[in-house]
Amino acid sequence: MDKNEILKTSAEYRDALKKLKPNIIKDKMLEEPCEDEDIQRGTNVIALTYDYARDPKYKELMTVESPLTGKVINRFNYIPRTKDDLKKRLKMINLLAQEVVCVQRCVGADGLYALFIGTHRLDKSNKGETRYHERLLKYLRYIQDNDIAPAGAVTDGKGDRSLTPAKQPERDSYLRIVKETDEGVYVSGIKTPITMSLYTEEIIVVPGLQYTEEDKDCAIAFAIPADAEGVERYMLGPDVVTMTDEFAPTHGRKYLNKEGMVIFNNVFVPNERIFLHGEYRFAAIYANLFATLHRFSYTACKPALFDIMTGAAMLISDYNGTKGEYFLSNTSEKIFEIAKNSILVSGMAKAAVEAAQETESGAIFPDPTYANMGKYIASDMFTGAVSTLQDMSGSLPANLPYSNLLSSEKHKENVRKLFARKKGISAEDQYKLNEFIRVLVASSEGGLLQIGSKHGGGNKEAEKVAIYANHLRRMFQCKSLVKKVVFKD
Ligand SMILES: Cc1cc2nc3c(=O)[nH]c(=O)nc-3n(C[C@H](O)[C@H](O)[C@H](O)COP(=O)(O)OP(=O)(O)OC[C@H]3O[C@@H](n4cnc5c(N)ncnc54)[C@H](O)[C@@H]3O)c2cc1C
């Protein structure tokens, strides 16, 4: 490897995971977690981000020179400074999402990005009495020097939603400081569901809410190795099962979101890895920075998903002979209803870049109104697009015969009759396309994608709050405008 580059191979990433102390529980503790097929399929997603960074075809997009070290690093570990950086970040996520659907690595990357800006602001508000930003830079350098893909843990278990953290009957519903020493703090609690937490070397923790003084022990941000003493990781989603044979699409067979719950049980965090420590007013600032940045990432991956659904809708119309108009059913109109969402969300992404603002930390920050609106539209429209694709595909995706029968001497004649649709399209291709659509819209993984599009990065209400916060003044101006026009005020 060029000495000016720090770009791990995907094999080195896998080896680094193998060296971690086993602490992953599926239905029981996994002694060799890297041998687990679900974990392997999740690992493949992250491995692709390493492979693309070394692939001459994608290298320019996937890598960038670090201002901290002068070395070429993976773009996920780089803090954007210009509008061009933001555009490339979006393009990189979109490219990967076309292959893997959910890129997963953006959560930790957005956590680093949010902490970069947040720590700078916090030190400034403390008039330089704290050195959180310096610590963060040191940690960022560690991540870059070792080309680590960290997970981002923001969402707490949260317990009874109507109660504040301090009033929870189960105090571990929120991650919190349980003991302090001169060297650091001990933390306990739950963060869940944490994407790629089962196949990462490092976990970055950011508060998920605003806190009052009463809850200030929850106002903590830090980073720890995924196998730190006291950390346990639970594999989630027992029902996310997929077909794995030759007819299965890559998503499911090769790639998977395997979510994890991270339990912290008296975990020691040394001072140099703490980036917020009881400054409860800043918890909301950190959480909001992360939320906007992560929603901005969604404006890159969700257009890829809408594009995939558009392509699937077009192909299934070709394969079934339903292209065109038929008795109150217009296929082009239906495809348009799916395709428009990609344009809308990409438009919001472009607007968020165009109106991005530099911050005093040196990082650039995408416009929060457009970033939040992009994610809001993506969430709002996702179920409708799924529904349209289900409608256009008919019952076949959910009613496929077992694939081995396609080649069974005894049964293939019968089974192939089902796939005798548009002339010239083989039964195998019909099967593959319908299986692909099943995975997208009628499977446990498809369900995960739908829930992810709703809740990942926060739910619609949280997005609305962020939009109102930035747009309310403009809305009042709209009222004044109408008063002026109607009443000549
Ligand atoms: C696929 C997937 C991947 C994810 N990956 C990550 C990750 O990598 N890292 C991470 O930190 N998080 C992750 N998340 C978590 C995500 O951020 C949360 O799911 C999201 O913030 C919503 O929180 P919740 O699931 O606890 O739902 P809730 O907050 O319980 O919301 C459910 C509903 O209840 C409503 N509600 C909430 N509180 C109240 C109340 N007090 N009164 C009335 N109504 C209320 C909400 O508006 C919503 O309609 C992921 C989620 C998914 C689905």
Regions with little confidence, pLDDT below 50 for 5+ residues? none
Strand order of the largest sheet: 1-9-10-6-5
User: CATH superfamily membership of the domain at 284-478, which one?
Assistant: Butyryl-CoA Dehydrogenase, subunit A, domain 3
State the helix count: 14
Distance between the termini: 70 Å
Enumerate the distinct ligands.
flavin-adenine dinucleotide
Order of helices and strands: HEHHEEHHHEEEEEEHEEHEEHEEHHHHH
Mean of all residue-level pLDDT scores:
95
CA radius of gyration is 24 Å
Estimated structural class: alpha+beta
Query: Approximately what portion of the residues adopt beta-strand conformation?
Result: 5-15%
Structure description:
This protein is an alpha+beta fold and 489 residues long. It has a domain at 284-478: Butyryl-CoA Dehydrogenase, subunit A, domain 3 (Up-down Bundle), CATH 1.20.140.10. It has 14 helices and 15 strands. It has helices at 10-18, 37-54, 59-62, 83-100, 106-125, 132-145, 250-253, 280-320, 331-354, 368-393, 412-418, 427-441, 444-455, 460-487; strands at residues 24-25, 63-65, 72-74, 151-153, 176-180, 184-194, 202-205, 220-225, 231-235, 260-270, 274-277, 325-326, 329-330, 357-358, 364-365. The chain has a 5-stranded mixed beta sheet with strand order 1-9-10-6-5, with no helix packed on it. A 4-stranded mixed beta sheet has the order 4-7-8-11. Strand 5 (176-180) and strand 6 form a beta hairpin. Helix 4 crosses helix 8 (280-320), helix 4 packs antiparallel against helix 9 and helix 8 packs parallel to helix 10. The chain is globular. The model has no long low-confidence stretch (mean pLDDT 95). Flavin-adenine dinucleotide (FAD) binds at residues 107, 152-155, 158, 161-162, 193-195, 259, 448, 451-452, 455-459, 461.
